[in-house]
Design a protein that fits this description.
heterodimer, A: 109 residues, mainly beta, five-stranded antiparallel beta sheet, B: 114 residues, seven-stranded mixed beta sheet, four-stranded antiparallel beta sheet, 0% helix, globular
Chain lengths: 109, 114
């Protein structure tokens, strides 16, 4: 079966760095997406990785290891507004997105 | 770019009535759109995949006669919740597939059935 695993909840301090991990098992693989979802709002696109390595976009970076079925989202210089759920989603061989349950990130002052 | 709108943003209706939700891709054409449902503090649940000009593909456990989907153009998909009941109260979110298979989400519609 297809499966995406990510931690349910994480807590970090304002100004710090946090890494949210995601492991995936899919039938075929065409890339890995990260989305941010604030409470009561729809998800917004953060990043897409299809090749191994690190993609940096401002304070946010995303890493992919295809051989390990593993990705992480790295958030630097955390701000209170980064408190949200972070969704990992893998694109399978049929180009369908398989969604993780999301990681709720709590930022403390 | 890649803006998706949804209308209405919230709706309250009586039990037994039908509610139509519109999803529009404003600045791009979307052959494929998706409809999700999300209950409070739960993850996104895919309801159906909507393809322009053809029948929608429903996920297991989603009643196609209750949740009618129409994707009549490359910029518009509609979801009609027929004979709504209180248990249908939820946050309904649509998304449109981009050229790299990413999904761009609409702002969501909060449905409350009394």
């Amino acid at each position: 079966g297809q499966n995406i695993d990510q931690p349910t909840e994480m807590t970090a301090t304002e100004g710090a760095i946090v890494q949210i991990n995601c492991t995936y098992q899919t039938s075929g693989f065409n890339g890995l997406f990260w989305y941010q979802q604030h409470a009561g709002e729809a998800p917004t696109f953060l990043s897409y990785n299809v090749l191994d390595g690190l993609e940096e976009k401002g304070r946010f970076s995303s890493f992919l290891s295809r051989s390990k079925g593993y990705s992480y989202l790295l958030l630097k210089e955390l701000q209170m507004k980064d408190s949200a759920s972070y969704l990992c989603a893998a694109l399978d061989s049929n180009y369908q997105l398989i969604w993780g349950a999301g990681t709720k990130l709590i930022i403390k002052p | 770019g890649a803006v998706v709108s949804q209308h209405p943003s919230w709706v309250i209706c009586k039990s037994g009535t039908s509610v139509k939700i519109e999803c529009r891709s404003l600045d791009f054409q979307a052959t494929t759109m998706f409809w999700y449902r999300q209950f409070p503090k739960q993850s996104l649940m895919l309801m159906a995949t909507s393809n322009e000009g053809s029948k929608a593909t429903y996920e297991q456990g989603v009643e196609k006669d209750k949740f009618l989907i129409n994707h009549a153009s490359l910029t518009l998909s509609t979801l009609t919740v027929t004979s709504a009941h209180p248990e249908d109260s939820s946050f309904y979110i649509c998304s449109a597939r981009g050229e790299w298979f990413e999904q761009f989400f609409g702002p969501g519609t909060r449905l409350t059935v009394l």
